[in-house]
Amino acid sequence: MARYDKGHKATTHQRVVRLAARRFRESGLSAVGVASLMGEAGLTHGGFYGHFPSKQALIREALVSALSDTRQHLEKVAHAQGGLAALLHAYLSADHRDNPADGCAIAALAAEVSREPGETRAAFAEQTQALIALIESQLPPATQQQAGRPAKAVLATMLGTLLLARTTTDRAEADAMLEIGMQAALQLGQTGVLS
């Protein structure tokens, strides 16, 4: 029997979670099977249960990992490059539009997650709230005092814009959609005006 270095199981576990997060965003939760995922990770189907009690447990971990990565990336961008405008430029970019497998799990999977068990939806909602809190932290103080409403509206605008841009077949129109959504989200964030 092969002996592995200390930490091998944890490293392998994390590798499977990251691969699953990418594959789920790329293909959807139900389209990714455990056997194919484990094969892609270089592991056996039977080895799955040494890491996860169920596919649902893997889905939860993968969603939390993906959403946490998105939030951390946007936080770094906002702090390094200039607040809400930089965050919006990163999120509503052509690169993010064209690469859902590496992007925001909310945009890629929210419709599917809405049909998942309560524990999975709760984990997803918790990470979504963390993203809303990040957006709120980038708003002007007067806008922040509106009890989270503008930050939620900014996120909704970001998500809607990204989804529409992804479904638009004309690249110039998709680029224009991103720009319009960015301007709308920025204005909403700066003014907090909800008509």
From TrEMBL:
- Name of this protein: TetR/AcrR family transcriptional regulator
Question: What is the source species?
Answer: Leeia aquatica
Q: What is the lineage of its organism?
A: Bacteria, Pseudomonadati, Pseudomonadota, Betaproteobacteria, Neisseriales
Q: Could you tell me which InterPro entries the record lists for this protein?
A: Homeodomain-like_sf (IPR009057), HTH_TetR (IPR001647), Tet_transcr_reg_TetR-rel_C_sf (IPR036271), TetR_C (IPR011075)
Example of a GO MF term? DNA binding
Which PROSITE patterns does this chain map to? HTH_TETR_2
Q: Where's the DNA-binding part?
A: 33-52
Origin, by domain of life?
Bacteria
Check the record and name the Pfam families matching this protein: TetR_C_13, TetR_N
Alphabetized, the UniProt keywords read: DNA-binding, Transcription, Transcription regulation
Domain HTH tetR-type per the UniProt entry, residue ranges: 10-70
